[in-house]
Amino acid sequence: MATRNIDQDEYSIDEEEELDDSSMSLVEHLEELRWRxxxxxxxxxxxxxxxxxxxxxxxxxxxYPLPKTADAALRSVGDKLVVTGxxxxxxxxxxxxxxVGFLVALPVILYQVWAFISPGxxxxxxxxxxxxxxxxxVMFIAGIALGFVVLQYPVAWLINFASDSFTPLxxxxxxxxxxxxxxxxxxxxxxIPLVLTFMARIGLVTSQTLTRRxxxxxxxxxxxxxxxxxGADLYSPIILGVAMSxxxxxxxxxxxxxxx
Length: 260
Hints:
Layout: H1 2-21, H2 26-53, H3 55-62, H4 66-69, H5 71-75, H6 88-117, H7 123-150, H8 152-161, H9 172-189, H10 192-201, H11 207-212, H12 214-228, H13 235-257
């Protein structure tokens, strides 16, 4: 028992020495934060410029669901989305380029966040952080991919809902705003396993706690799925709800296997 206590004390001393070696003054922290933010913004700008150069292919890719669901609306304006202002076409491309640029720059942004907080972490925490960042990026992209597959259903429902009473003119700004929020919802939802696993590692939840609260969790996720999907179609909330429930159950199994 005494030997074990000595080992724990030595481990605590080593961790304190790690923090002492990496300690910085407040001014140094602010300077470091300023440079990290600047590098992240540069990465977003570079990604946005690249996206702006390829804006036409990106736009055609994101409007892929429309030819199947809005033939009549698009034929009336020459198979193109509508802009209602003099500068709206330019601003839409800027917004689209910024969103894609942020997505392209996401690994750089996460690295800058990691580089800023890593000096204040213990060695064992650093080992856990790198896989979390990589998995988080993969899961976010997977969520966006699923959201893009599902996108055609709410678009079709919203366009056809009042087509007998109104002539739909689909503006570029409204369409891409809808797409951005819809894909973002799926991307964020796919971070659920990462959040729950992180909470388990720091001791906020356990697999037993998640198992006990499984019914309430599933009900809450399915309610959230109906609000997170902007369209009123049946397919989107069902697909998102199934995805959330499956991710929740897989996370519980993973936490049990890793004994958290």
